[in-house]
Records
---
Amino acid sequence: MTTDPNAPNDVPDPSDVKEEEEFEERHLLGQLFAALTARYRNEEGQLNIGVKRQDLQEALHINKTGLTRLLDLLRQEIAPLGLELVEYRLGRDTLYCIRTLYGVPGELSDPEYAVLGVIIATIERASKTKRPRRIATKDIETVLVARGRLSRYQLDRILRRLGELGYITRTARRITYGPRLELEFDAERREAIANASTIYLAGATATQEGDKL
Amino acid sequence: MLSNETSTYLRAFPRRKAWYETFQHNYKRNRLTPFGTKRITITLWNLTKKYEGALKQKDIIPVKEAEIDREEVADAYRVLETPWERNLDGRFYHTLATMQHHRDSHLAAPELAPEEWIIHFAEEVKRRATPLMFLVNRERSVPHFSLPDTDNPVTMSEAPTRDDQQAMKQHQVPFSEVSIDSLDTLRNTLHKRLQGKRFKYSELSDHLTNWELDLLSQMIRDNIIPALFDKNSVKFLSKHKEPSANATFAAVAIEAKKYAEVRRR
């Protein structure tokens, strides 16, 4: 008995199924990428960058291993674009977000970057044993306001914006690293900035030592 | 020399008393023979003040001059004995070292204008950043995964459409563009037209245009044109008559039917 090649075939072709699965997976990766490049403010007013792991698991209905596999896939896909997937912890939660691999100008303006540089340099120079590493707002004012580089009002606005964007966390008189700053500038880069800034902040050291007398 | 209390205290500790007396003796002797140290102390004092003043003014004293000053008082430690003089010596060397530091840092840091400083320093920071990536450059108040699905979108039927907003914009009354004099004449003509007459609320919008209604409501509020409100009608009184007592507060909303531009001058 010969089989008719034109007869309707109920059983789907295995290659078709595979293609469909792949298509779905790519679709899912696209959605995941869009989700990870978002930010929102939680109930406490804290800026959350990316998505929590728990939220991702609930939305995708997969377990931890499945999610890890999916994220690995995404990591491979975006690597040629110069992007990388970052996992970080904020409080009790693990979050995922995407950052660039190479040095690119971000969303801050020049004065904001300069203030950020001063903050990084001053904190890096402070003692490394004390945690959390923080500095007084006054120290930054001596470099920026007292030397006529920014007005007090400008500095205040910039600090507020940096706080809103998650770069720093401020208390009444002190400044600490925010989660975003540690993501965007890792320890090596921060140290490099601190080293490079010695020329720019040079004048300040002499006066500070003079003040201590 | 010793106060009464100190002497009673020291009487209990003879060894300490002996030490104290020796100290007193030495101290006195040093103070009474200042001939060797007087000149050098004065020099030290002047130089210290010179460097402290320069540091305060952020002036730089060149290396050559600083070296001459240092040599002048280099041997002072041999003759200085009292604590005050020794402190002064230390103070001078401290200011000298601070000046050295200050000079070096000024040589290292070129004098940049504040704006340039910010740009250059920002460049240093910027090129070391690996920024996070965001598709939308503004944060949401609601996380995107808890937004409603796209299948059942929110209805917007009650919100003003774009056409409505444009129509409202067209018929806005820009009183700010009207000069104060012309506004007075507009008020007077309106007052002449209305005084002593009674209108029904529904009729009022037939007689007056949109900006006239606006102006009228302002005039009633400021009591320029006193009015009596009934259930269905309003009566405008003449300017000099005060409205009778027990004036009730009333709010009437009238929608304009005629639209016109305000006459400007």
---
Amino acid sequence: MGDNEQILDQAAIWRGEGKGVALATVVATWGSSPRPTGSKLALADDGAFVGSVSGGCVEGAVIEEGLKAIKDGQPRLLSFGVTDERAWEVGLACGGKIDVFVERVE
Amino acid sequence: MNIRLLNQALAASRSGKAAALVTNLKSGKQSLVQGHEIAGDLPVDDVIAAAIRRAWERDENDTVMTGDGKLFIEIFNPRLRMLVVGAVHIAQPLARMAALTGYLVTIVDPRSAFANAERFPDVTLNGEWPDDAMKQLVPDRRTAIVTLTHDPKLDDPALAEALRSDAFYIGALGSRRTHARRCERLKEAGFTEEQMARIHGPIGLKIGAISPAEIAVSIMAEVTQVLRAPVEQAKAERAAAKAREAAE
């Protein structure tokens, strides 16, 4: 199974079990970002997750936003590596920049 | 994302057919596009359809700005495949590494003493003669073909079929001398130097590999290089062109 296929598959399984599920996808990268666009992370409302959107630098923040998305159903576009005042901001050690789209699986 | 759309995306990914998932990053509206079929709640107009085609040709995801916000176009490519001719020792670590790298692996070997489930658990085995197997498996531009038997009876017919296919990678195990003799035989069979240049022989990147697993690493590295390097190069060229435009 390809990476993304495995992640989508796991998301479908969790959803089938009645869990709340969110999907995060890298939608834009600049500079030396660790994972290409299309890279995915799926998470369940019990905290389980598969896949990655970076080398491990921003997964914590993405999971936090994913849990919020599961609760309120609002999709989110997160930017990492850019300096701004958003509270969830965490850095990418590699100096790259990435945008991550987070959505609830309905 | 709607679970129905997610399942359709999964099915598209498994079917090996071209598909694209388009997402509005503001509203979260999405559609899955397969050929002329569109499923989902995001309308796909001519501009978006053209962007999808472009992303497809480049084999690369893309973002486009529209009046309704930014769209992300995610390409679902047919699965990568690796056809390994020769159920030999090197094929054992190679099959596992290729599977980990995301390839669907088929091992072709009519010799059942080599190709059996005991030696290759969890790997698809094909016991046909290599040329028949190649005709059955129809290698495409997402397929890598690797011959490992050292036996011209088995390797040559597989390579001949490989050269007639769109396979993105063709590699043959054997020393420089073995490869020169192989090319002589293929020449006699009617292949040109230019056609034979597609064959990577001796196979693999030069990393001083000795053990079967190390040789598998060098093969896997070369296959990856052939798959990815042109895309990386095109990316760098586009970035340079953009920078030139901006400077003018």
